[in-house]
Every structure is written in C-alpha cells, then in structure tokens.
Amino acid sequence: MARPVCAIIGVGPGNGLALAKRFSQGGYDVALLSRSLEKLDMFAKQVDNARTYPCDAADPESLASAFQAVANDMGAVDVLCFNVGGGSWSTPDATTVEDMDRAFRINATGLLCAAQQVIPGMIKKGGGAIMISGATASVRGGPKTTAFAAAKAAQRSVAQSLARFLSPKGIHVALFIIDGVIDLPRTRKVLPDRPDTFFLKADDIADTIFHTARQPKSAWTFEMDLRPFVERW
To answer: Residue 83, Cβ neighbours under 10 Å: how many?
Structure first.
C-alpha cells in the first residue's frame, strides 16, 4: 500500500525540518520545498523517505512547477504544511510599497497558490489536511511589524476562507498561532541569558501539528495558539 504524502513548504532548521522528521516518522513520504536546493539536500539527508523540490513560495509559477513535480514523483498530496513566513521589520513611516507587496506574496498569496495546487487531488481523494504556520503578528500589529503583521493577518483570513470552503469536502484546514521564539542555535546566540523555558521547541510544535492533521472529523481544530507556558500574552 502506498504511503501518504506530506508536502512541506518552508523547510529550514527549525519548524520545517521538525515537521519533515515527524511526518516521516509517522509513515509519510515527505516532499521538501524551499528556495535553496543546497539547503534542501542537507535537510533531506536527515529525513527518511524525503525528496527535494526547490521553489519560491512568492512565485505562483514556481509553486505550480514544483507541485507538478511532486505529483509526478510521489502522487497526490495528502497533507500540506505551509510553513512560510517573511517580511520586513520596519516602522510604518519606513515601510515601503515593495515591503508590503513582498510580505503579502509570501504569506497570503503564497498560501492561496499552494493550496490551489493540492485542493483538486484532495477533493478527488475525499480528504486531506492543510496545516498553516501562523504568527501572533496576525492578531497584533507592532511598531516594527507593519508589513509582516498585515500579511500574516491576511494569511489568517485566507486560512479561514479555505477552512470554510474545504471542511465540508472533508479537507481539514488548521492555523497555528505561534507565539514565541523558536529554540535554534542562532536564537540562543542572540538571547544568551534567556532560560530554556523561554523557547518554543520545534519538535513539540511539529508533534502538535502532526496530531492535528490526523484529528477525527467530529472534532476538528481550526485555530490553535502555541506558546511556552511562561510566555506573557
């Protein structure tokens, strides 16, 4: 029997790699999608049953080409993890139109275009899951998150539209509001005085997303906040 397929867009050393490992351990073949083929190849060596597909989430044609390759090599996608985020960090008076456009292309338009690539196959199968890594910025704009927060808020709205359209078709859409700093060597270096409890563990985030993707239909989660127990909110 063929293994189900999980496609992860936005594979880096934190949540993306942790998601790849968790879904692989859970019995999935894994498609790794990100801009850098060199980095993808490095991550693929750490994940069983993984293939790599370089693409840019901000470029619809690049996404379409990558997902066509995934379909040709691995079959229809059962679970899509949209783990993409990006934007400038500037105050409103310093944020440019280009900053806004880029942030929206990555976070909101990118999600829509990626979802459009997997929806037909999921509808044909009668089920599937689209798991989206969101951010606290989607519900709370800050002085220096002008473009990022606006784009993440738009991503949250796209996720709601996807969920309301796809849930009756048996496709589970869930958004994870990630509130905190991911535990990585570079974040530890920047914040050397913070205790271990301050950081979000990527493996724990991945485990939560994995189980949410497999929830029974009678009790689906749409939106879930994830934060360390000491986080102030």
So the answer is: 28
**CA-CA distances (angstroms) from residue 233 to 21, 46, 225?**
30, 35, 11
Cβ-in-10-Å burial (0-12, 13-18, 19+) of 33 comes to buried
> Measured between alpha carbons, how far is 182 from 88 in angstroms, rounded to an integer?
19
Closest CA to 19 of 211, 163, 177: 211
- Which tens digits make up the pLDDT trace of 45-80? 999 999 999 999 999 999 999 999 999 999 999 999
Crossing angle for the helix pair 60-74 and 110-125, to the nearest 10 degrees: 30
**Token reading at 84:** 């993409």
Buried b / exposed e over 170-179, threshold 16 CB at 10 Å, is ebbbbbbbbb
Among the listed residues 75, 71, 24, 74, the one whose alpha carbon sits nearest the alpha carbon of residue 45: 24
93 Cβ contact list (under 8 Å, min separation 6): none
Give the fold, CATH level 3, of 5-226. Answer: Rossmann fold (3.40.50)
Q: Delimit the domains of the chain by residue range.
A: 5-226
